[in-house]
UniProtKB/TrEMBL annotation:
It is found in: Membrane. Its main location: membrane. It holds the Pfam family MHC_II_beta. The keyword Mitochondrion does not apply. This is MHC class II beta chain. It comes from Plecoglossus altivelis. One of its GO terms (cellular component) is MHC class II protein complex. The keyword Transmembrane applies. The chain crosses the membrane at residues 216-237. PROSITE patterns: IG_LIKE. It comes from the Eukaryota.
Amino acid sequence: MHLSKNLYIFFAVVLSIDITDGYDYEMISRCIFSSKDLHDAELIDSYVFNKVELIRFNSSVGHYVGYTDLGIKNADRWNKGPELAREKTQLDGYCKHNAANDYSAILEKHVQPSVILRSGSPPGGTHHAILTCSAYDYYPKQIKVTWMRDGHEVTSGVISTEEQANGDWYYHIHSQLEYTPRSGEKISCMVEHASLDKPIEKYWDPSLPESERSKIAIGASGLVLGLVLALAGLIYYQRKKSNGRTLVPSG
Ligand SMILES: *[C@@H]1O[C@H](CO)[C@@H](O)[C@H](O)[C@H]1NC(C)=O
């Protein structure tokens, strides 16, 4: 899987007091790193009152820094007290420890899409055909859906949605191809995703779908039955006619 160079992961601990009266005091812990080996991991602890950051601990700086009168006074006090020693253990104890767990639980989690290809008719009764290729219930979000016609990528007549969140951590996407069918061609939808060793490729089968085939089968049986009955009736009628002729008493 491709990981962005500037991957940032945040962990936040929020302690809030007095929210009912409209005040908010928060301690926000952020772990920021851009490499999976965590060599540049940085812990930023911010102490914020009503959106004003009073004090910050940045593990690369190594001590508390105050930003307001109150913040400066307390940063001085914490830098001399047990707070600083405890804070300094958090880069390893909190950031690096959790990051390893989160990598395996979130970043390395892959779920394969299920791909469905269906047809629809475009409005206005044109000679065009529309195919829709959908990929459902996959993770992570990034995915690539391509249309192929006789082995070549098709780009015109293609409309795709964004990756859409299901709301349960999984995603789905739809892509539509509008084209003029040619006989003997092979059209397929190809889906590439981090969960797949090789792309999923679904070929369009231009023969009629199951439901249409059964309707035609029912219609055809009705026709055959009707013909058989008509033929039987005709034979019966003919025999009756000829019987009538031969059975007429001669004397
Ligand atoms: C933390 O401190 C380092 C060194 O001064 C600085 O490069 C970095 O931008 C700081 N990080 C944040 C989020 O303030």
